[in-house]
C-alpha cells in the first residue's frame, strides 16, 4: 500500500472501513457464552497516549491494540466479569499514515476475536499533536462479582477488585500469576536501542548494523512490553474455582503498576500487611539476563516496573488444595500479616528489607 495521509483518504472513508470490518467479525462470532447467564454488566476503559504511555518510534500499532485490549480485559477479569464487547476510539493527527490506522484496526480485531469478544465500534477523531487511543470493554459479572457490583459502580477495578467476603486475615497465602518484571525489562531494552539509534543519527553514521538493532535475543521481554497477551488460563481457572466454591474467601487484584505499589494499595484497603520473599518472585531467565546485562537489580523490575498485567490473589492456607486446577499458573510468594507490620520483603541474602 502506498503512503497516504488520513487527510487524503478522509475520516468518513476510514470509518466506513471500520463498519465493514465490524460486520465481518460479527458474522464470525454468532453467540457469546456469557450471554446465557447474565447477572449484570460492568465496563473498563483504558487510555494510551504517544509520548506518555507508548512511543511510536518502536511501538507497532498492532501491538498497541493488543496491549490496550489486554489492559482493559484484565481490569474486567479483576472485577470477576467475563469480557464480551469492545469499543475503541483513536485520535490521530492528519499527517500520520493511514497504514497506522489500519494496523490498529487489524490488531484490535485479532485481539478481540482471539478472546471471543465482539468489537462493537471503532471511531476516528482528530488530534492536534500526539496520537492517542481509548478502549472500553464491557462484560457480564459472574454471580460472585455481582454480589458487590453496586459497591463498585462508581469505582474502577483497581479501587474495588474483589467481592464482598471478609478481608484477608494474617496467615492467608499471597500468590501471583505469571512472571513479573518482563515488560519493564523489554522497555529497558527498547529505550537503550532507541538511544543508540538517536546517537548514531546525530553523528550521521550510516552503519546499517548500528541503525538496525538486533532484538532477537530479547524477543520474550520485548513482546511482553509491546504486545502482552491476556492471562486467559488464570481467568478460566479462577472462574471455575469460584463457581464451585462461591463462599470461598478469595481476593484478587490486577498487577499493572508493580508488585510493591499494588501491595501498598491493598494493604491500605484491607487494613493488613504483607510479607513476601524476594527469592520467591517469579522472574524469567530472559528478564534476569537483561538486568544482568544492564547491571541493574532485577527485583526492582518486578517490584516497581509495572505493565505486567498479571494478578495477585489471596486465599486461606487451609483452602489451597482447591487450587489444583490452577497448578502451574501461580506462585506462592508470601503471606498476609498484621497492618502494623507494613510490607516486609525477606531479601534473598536472608536479610529483611522494608
Describe the structure.
- The chain folds into 2 domains: 6-152, PurM-like, N-terminal domain (60s Ribosomal Protein L30, Chain: A); 173-184 and 224-353, Phosphoribosyl-aminoimidazole Synthetase, Chain A, domain 2, CATH 3.90.650.10.
- The protein is 40% helix and 21% strand.
- The protein has 13 helices and 11 strands.
- A hairpin with a 5-residue loop joins strand 10 (343-346) and strand 11 (352-353).
- The longest helix is centred in the middle third of the chain and has 21 residues, at 182-202.
- The protein is globular, with a radius of gyration of 22 Å.
- The termini are far apart.
- Residues 32-38 and 148-163 have low confidence and may be disordered.
Topology:
Blueprint: H1 6-9, H2 11-28, E1 41-49, H3 61-78, E2 81-92, H4 98-114, E3 118-126, E4 132-141, H5 143-146, H6 149-152, E5 173-177, H7 182-202, H8 208-211, H9 219-226, H10 232-244, E6 251-255, H11 259-270, E7 273-277, H12 285-294, H13 298-304, E8 310-315, E9 330-337, E10 343-346, E11 352-353
Parallel strand pairs: 2-3, 7-10
Antiparallel strand pairs: 1-4, 2-4, 5-8, 5-9, 6-8, 7-9, 10-11
Helix pairs in contact: 2-4, 3-4, 7-9, 7-12
Amino acid at each position: 500500500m502506498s503512503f497516504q495521509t488520513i487527510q487524503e483518504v478522509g475520516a468518513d472513508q476510514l470509518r466506513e472501513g471500520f463498519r465493514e470490518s465490524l460486520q465481518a467479525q460479527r458474522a464470525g462470532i454468532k453467540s457469546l457464552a456469557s450471554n446465557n447467564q447474565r447477572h449484570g454488566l460492568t465496563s473498563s476503559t483504558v487510555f494510551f497516549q504517544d509520548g506518555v504511555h507508548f512511543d511510536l518510534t518502536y511501538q507497532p500499532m498492532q501491538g498497541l491494540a493488543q496491549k490496550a485490549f489486554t489492559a482493559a480485559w484484565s481490569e474486567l477479569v479483576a472485577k470477576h466479569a467475563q469480557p464480551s464487547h469492545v469499543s475503541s476510539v483513536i485520535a490521530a493527527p492528519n499527517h500520520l499514515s493511514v497504514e497506522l490506522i489500519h494496523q490498529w484496526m487489524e490488531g484490535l480485531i485479532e485481539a478481540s476475536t482471539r478472546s471471543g469478544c465482539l468489537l462493537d465500534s471503532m471511531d476516528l477523531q482528530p488530534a492536534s499533536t500526539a496520537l492517542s487511543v481509548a478502549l472500553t470493554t464491557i462484560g457480564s459479572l459472574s454471580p460472585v462479582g455481582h454480589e458487590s457490583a453496586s459497591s463498585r459502580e462508581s469505582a474502577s477495578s483497581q479501587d474495588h477488585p474483589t467481592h464482598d467476603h471478609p478481608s484477608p486475615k494474617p496467615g492467608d497465602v499471597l500468590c501471583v500469576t505469571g512472571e513479573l518484571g518482563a515488560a519493564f525489562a523489554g522497555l529497558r531494552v527498547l529505550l537503550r536501542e532507541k538511544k543508540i539509534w538517536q546517537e548514531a543519527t546525530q553523528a550521521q553514521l550510516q552503519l546499517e548494523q548500528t541503525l538496525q538493532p538486533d532484538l532477537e535475543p530479547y524477543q520474550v521481554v520485548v513482546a511482553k512490553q509491546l504486545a502482552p497477551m491476556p492471562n486467559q488460563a488464570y481467568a478460566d481457572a479462577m472462574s471455575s474455582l469460584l463457581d464451585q466454591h462461591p463462599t470461598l474467601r478469595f481476593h484478587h487484584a490486577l498487577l499493572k503498576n508493580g508488585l510493591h505499589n499494588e501491595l501498598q494499595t491493598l494493604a491500605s484497603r484491607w487494613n493488613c500487611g504483607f510479607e513476601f520473599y524476594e527469592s520467591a518472585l517469579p522472574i524469567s531467565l530472559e528478564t534476569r539476563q537483561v538486568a544482568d546485562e544492564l547491571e541493574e537489580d532485577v527485583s526492582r523490575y518486578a517490584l516497581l516496573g509495572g505493565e505486567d498485567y498479571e494478578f495477585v490473589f489471596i486465599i486461606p492456607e487451609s483452602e489451597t488444595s482447591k487450587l489444583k486446577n490452577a497448578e502451574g499458573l501461580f506462585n506462592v510468594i508470601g503471606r498476609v500479616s498484621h497492618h502494623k507490620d507494613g510490607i516486609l520483603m525477606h531479601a534473598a541474602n536472608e536479610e529483611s528489607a522494608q
